[in-house]
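FAQ: What does a ligand-bound record look like?

Like this one, built around iron/sulfur cluster:
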Amino acid sequence: MLDSEADQAATQLGEISRWRDSFQLAAADVPQGHDRRAFMMRSAMATAIAALTGRPMAAFAQAPAQPPPLDPSLDVVKRSKGPVMTTVDEMYKVGPGPSSSHTIGPMRITYDFYQRCTKLPAAQLNQATALKVHLYGSLSATGKGHGTERACLAGIIGKEPATIDPAFLDGLAADPSQVFPVKLGGKTFNASLQDIVFDAVKGDFKHPNTMTCKLMARDKVLLEQEYYSVGGGFIEWKGYVPPKKGAPKYPYSVMAEVLAHCAKANISVSQLAMANEMSVSGKSEAEINAYLDKILGAMRATVKSGLAAPTSTLPGPIKLKTKAGDVYKKALEGTKPTQRAIALVSAFALAGSEENARGHLVITAPTGGSAGVMPAVIFSLDEGAKLPDDALRRGLLAGALVGYLGKHNATLSGAEGGCQAEIGVASAMSAAVIAEAYGAPPQVVANSAEAALEHHLGMTCDPVAGYVQIPCIERCAFGAVKAWTGYLIAQNEVPANRRVDFDTTVSAMALTAKEMNSKYKETSEGGLAVSVTLC
Ligand code: SF4
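The answer part, i.e. the structure of the complex:
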């Protein structure tokens, strides 16, 4: 790298930091009726981008008038300020589909509560007679379509989300009357789906996905905890204090800062991401790589089992037939290389997404609905391009960084931002995976992610009958193919000629999410959900 480039990068970092400071000082100037965080974020990004490009960003002067929907005391809201602190084990989580917020999150919650119960004194446990779970808000409204109650029961009886045998959940769906013994200390009592209560849909909840867990001694409550499934499988609880983390070696909150750090230190995006993982989590490089290997293994497994599954009808009223195996077999017979490649990537994504719809184990990258996208890309880089595991690990790190920025500056939740936030971000993460795995320079990694995200902007979330099947399953295939398209355009264009940068596109996604009608935010009240006839 040229010294002048390093100097320029250092200057840019300093400018971004100074402009951010000036925005913090100007916090009191947020226009009345505007969301303070979104206004400041857009404004900070506008000045940073103006500094880097020399062009003013007039569009950022607009601010939406809607108030933020989430309680400001939630850590998921607070975490959006300051530098990115998320780590790979928070971003990539293994658990049962079909929804990270309605299945994986609730199961992580009930498993957490079960763990808390096991730590109670023996005298208290000896009185225990039952475990009860109450689902509120969106979890109560659409939980049945997501298998929330089965996931909750599995967790409350001590089954771990990352290792549960999907056959257990399949069996529970086939026979909901099953009863399971729960042993807590010296006491054993029964638990069943009767203990999972679909409670109030509307109320003054801190988060749309609120739930309570109780350990009972007949009518007396021995232990009670209120929890929130805050999206992407992340969970919090009343009184939640985030775990202590170290300072990131390369602090950033926008991609412009990532690129400036990379230029200044002459490192790749994955090298920056690994350095930050280590400094934030306190883990060694070997420990982080071991976790990434587990995620790679889980991604390969979800594609393989989805491809091997016989054609069947997915659960729910849509009666949707699976197709991954059929598309895969036909693709293998194809003689035209381009068509074959696109069909194979599509088949891999359908396979992962159908596994999600079956309620089998998937990986949040970033969510359950988008669970077919990144595994398809990993599988194509692995089985198709034969890239080594260390290239795939580097890809996962760069993909995670893109996901962090989506979460930090916009949202990863279809309920908050429509499908652009799920499949759109998954596609952007996956485009970064491809670019980084091939050793592309940081600007190309960022441009790949930008291209993939840009062409999902405005995409609505309108799952038919509330099931993560239509449009979600085929949409994963399009997200995976668009990830490749994003990379191939970014790799082959002159990087500096890209007119729209990643931060601008994330900001546009946040703005679009704010202004999107709630009919298109996972409520199944508009679009395909009201257009497809079920019979
Ligand atoms: S439409 Fe998109 S955002 Fe909505 S549930 Fe399906 S995959 Fe998720």
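Follow-up question: can I read anything off the structure? Yes, for example: Strands lie at 94-96, 130-135, 179-184, 187-192, 196-198, 210-217, 220-231, 234-237, 361-363.
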